[in-house]
Amino acid sequence: MISTTMYVWLIAACGVATYLTRLPGLWLGRMLHITPRLKRGLDSIPVGVFAAMVVPSLVKGAAPSGHINVPFVLAAIVAAVIALATKHPLWTMLGGVLAIALFRLF
């Protein structure tokens, strides 16, 4: 059994490890010249990761039976419309989450 003190040390060690893995990137980032094209590419990474999580479920079917999960597909359409209208990842994700919650209710 792990004691409370051990949990505190574990959390502290994880925090230190997190900062130690990020510091070299921040240090190197200050030394690099970031062009507008590179900045656009780096800015699109979160959207790319989100798409990588969502698209396989749409293609394969998220329902346990293997059939198309209609609420999921409808929520993806809503998110796509929001993305095209706002061009803002946060509003897109929030709209998609809200849409899937509402579609699953009905």
The total of helices stands at 5
Low-confidence parts lasting 5 or more residues at pLDDT below 50?
Answer: none
Oligomer: single chain
User: Helicity level, as a percent range?
Assistant: over 70%
Q: For the terminal residues, how far apart are their CA atoms?
A: 46 Å
Structural class: mainly alpha
**SSE ordering:** HHHHH
Record field, number of beta strands: 0
Taken from the alpha-carbon principal axes, the silhouette is flat
* Overall average pLDDT: 83
- Tell me about the biggest sheet? none
* Radius of gyration of CA atoms, rounded to a whole number: 20 Å
What fraction strand? under 5%
Question: Overview of this structure, please?
Answer:
This protein is mainly alpha-helical and about 110 residues long. Helices cover about 80% and strands about 0% of the residues. The longest helix is centred in the first third of the chain and has 28 residues, at about 5-30. The termini are far apart. The model has no long low-confidence stretch (mean pLDDT about 85). Keywords: Membrane, Transmembrane, Transmembrane helix. InterPro entries: Brnchd-chn_aa_trnsp_AzlD (IPR008407). It comes from Alicyclobacillus mengziensis. This is AzlD domain-containing protein.
Features:
106 residues, mainly alpha, flat, AzlD domain-containing protein
Question: In a nutshell, what does this entry contain?
Answer:
With 106 residues, this protein is mainly α. The protein contains 5 helices and no strands.
